[in-house]
Amino acid sequence: MCSSDLHDVVKSEFPQGEKQPDKSAVAAVHKRSATVYDEFSTKAIFDGMWLSDSLRRTYVDMYTHKRGLSAETQETELKRQLAENRVWLSFYLLADVRDRSFTQMNEKDSFWTTYAVVDGKHKLVPESIKEVELEPEYQQLFGSRYIHFKTPYLIKIPVSEHMAEHIASGKYTSISLVVGS
Q1: How far apart (Å, rounded) are the C-alpha atoms in residues 121 and 132?
Q2: 179 phi and psi angles, rounded to 5 deg
Q3: Which of the listed residues 9, 39, 153, 173 has the most CB atoms within 10 Å of its CB?
Q4: pTM, whole model, 2 decimals?
Q5: Contacts (Cβ under 8 Å, ≥6 apart) of 10
Q6: CA 102/CA 113 separation, integer angstroms
Q7: Phi, psi (degrees; rounded to nearest 5) at 61
Q8: Which of 105, 172, 108 is nearest to 132 (CA)?
Q9: What is the chain written as a DSSP string?
Q10: pLDDT band, residue 23 (cuts 50/70/90)
Q11: Which pLDDT value is given to residue 17?
């Protein structure tokens, strides 16, 4: 028996999973990176991803497929995720801060602060910045930008119902997360 015969037997005896399409293109639209330098030294590296409706749909597809969940469960989870976008403007931020005296971004007097800017004129301040463990699906969506040395944060910014509707319908042309010191 040669190796190709063995390969055919393995496929027929042990069904293989279906190859899933690459969903990184959806994340690429909502993902940005920035590096902060002071002369010739790197002070910080930030990678942010906006949890838009399309990104949340992608996440739910990946999450439910990986776990073999039913279509009803998928629909319920998608509704929950989209309902969250009607109340919050949410971002994941990966932070690699090189300063040894760095206090966490979720502390009151942190050196680094964040806020969102919608259409260049609406400044929104976060209500919640939490250090989190990223789910494997979001790690995959971050791609090579995700490494264990970066600290992941979930940033939640409250939005009015009117603004949430405009964001969902695409009436706003830009949404930015600003990280400053």
Answers
A1: 30
A2: -115, 125
A3: 153
A4: 0.85
A5: none
A6: 12
A7: -60, -50
A8: 105
A9: --HHHHHHHHHHHSPPPPPPPP-HHHHHHTEEEEEEEETTEEEEEEEEEE--HHHHHHHHHHHHHHHT--HHHHHHHHHHHHHHHTTEEEEEEEEEE--TTPPPTTSTT-SSEEEEEETTTEEE--SEEEE-PPPHHHHHHHGGG--TTSEEEEEEEE--HHHHHHHHHT----EEEEEE-
A10: confident
A11: 66
Residue 12 has pLDDT above 80, yes or no: no
User: pLDDT, tens digit, for every residue of 84-140?
Assistant: 999 999 999 999 988 767 678 888 778 888 999 999 889 999 999 999 999 999 999
Q: How far is CA 77 from CA 59, 61, 70, 80, 132, in A?
A: 10, 10, 11, 5, 20
What are 33's two structure tokens?
A: 């990176």
**Alpha carbon distance 159, 124 (integer Å):** 8
Share of the chain above pLDDT 70, in %: 90
Q: Cα angle vertex 97, ends 95, 101, to 5°?
A: 135
